[in-house]
Write a structure and sequence with these properties.
Blueprint: E1 2-6, H1 12-16, E2 34-36, H2 43-50, H3 65-68, E3 79-83, E4 88-91, E5 103-107, H4 122-125, E6 130-131, H5 133-138, E7 140-145, E8 151-152, E9 157-161, E10 169-180, E11 187-202, E12 207-214, E13 218-219, E14 223-226, E15 245-251, E16 257-258, E17 263-266, E18 279-284, E19 288-292, E20 298-302, E21 306-316, E22 321-328, E23 332-333, E24 337-339
Antiparallel strand pairs: 1-5, 2-3, 3-4, 6-11, 7-9, 7-14, 8-13, 9-12, 10-11, 10-14, 11-12, 15-17, 15-24, 16-23, 17-22, 18-21, 18-24, 19-20, 21-22
Amino acid sequence: MTRIIFPLLFSVATLLGTPALAAPAALADDAPDSHTVVRGDTLWGISGKFLKEPWRWPEVWRLNREQIRNPHLIYPGQVIVLDRSGPYLSIGRRVGDQKLEPQVYQEDLKDAISSIPTQDIEPFLTKPLVIDEARLADAGTVVATETSRVFMGPGDTIFAKNIREDQKVWQVLRPAKPLVDPVTGEVLGYEAAYLGAARVTANGTPATLEILSAVEEIGTGDRLVASDKPEVFSFVPHAPVADVAGRLIGIYRGVSETGRNHVVTLNVGTREGVDRGTVLALHRNRGSVVYKDDDGNKESFVLPEKRYGLAFVFRVFNRVSYALVMETDGQVAVGDSVRKP
C-alpha cells in the first residue's frame, strides 16, 4: 500500500523549476469536462483527451514535484476533471464541488497508472542493451558447457572466467552489432543481444553457473555482466533543456521502418543532455533533389525536414538512448532526425 497526498495547489510547471514555454498548453478540440480512469490508461493517453500536446501534461496537473515524478499517481475509478480557466487538470473532484485542500488516497501499487505503456518497454528496462568497450573488457566469458554441448538452456550448467565472487546473478548476452554514428562514423557502443540469466553455484576459475532463464540458446563465447537491479519507471515527459540534434540509428528487431509504440535507438545520450523522460520530436529527412532548367543548368536543393511525431526516451547511456515512439503520422525510418520539440 502507498499513501499519496494531493495538495491541488500549484502548477507543476512552476514546481519543476523549468523555464516557461512560449505558449500555454492548448486544449484538444473535443476536450471532455472529465474522464474516469480505467485499466490500461496512461497519463500520456489521458492527457491526450484534454490537450493537443499530451506530453505537456506536467504543466497543467495540480500536483507537486515529488508526486508528479511518482508513477503511482492515479488509479482506476478516479475522475480526472478539466478546469478550462487554466487549463488545469485535477483528480477526484469536480471543480467547485468542494474547497480545494490536501487529500489522502490509499491504493494498491499494482493498480497504478504509469506515464506511458510500460508493457512496451519493460523488457528494455533492466537488460544491458548497450555495452561500451570498458564494460565489455570486464565482462565474464563462457568458456565451456556441460558435457561439451554446443548450446544450453534453463537448468543447464556453464563454466565462465572473470566472474567476481561477490556477484551471484549474471546476465548472459551476445555482443551484436556496433552502434555507429551516421554522421561521424564513430562507434558509440555495442548493442547486446540478451540471452538470459545465470546464477553462480561454485566460485573458481572457471566459475560454475546454472542457467536460470534463457530467451535464446547460450554457448561458449557468450558474455556475462552483473545483473542490474530492476527499477520502477517513474519519469514524466519533459523537453530537453538544451537543443538536441540527433539521428535515429536503429529500430528494435533490425527492421528499417516502424510505427507507434515501437522502440527505436538514438545517437544521443547523457552527453547531449538527454535523460529518462526526455521528449524529442521526430523529423523526416526528405533528401535532396537536382533541378534542371530549360537551358540544361543544374541546381541541387536539400529539402526541408518535416516534423511528424514524438518519441519518449526511457533508457539512456552516455552516447546512446532508447525511446518509445508515442505519436507519428507515418512510418518512422532509420536516418530520421530527432530535435527538441
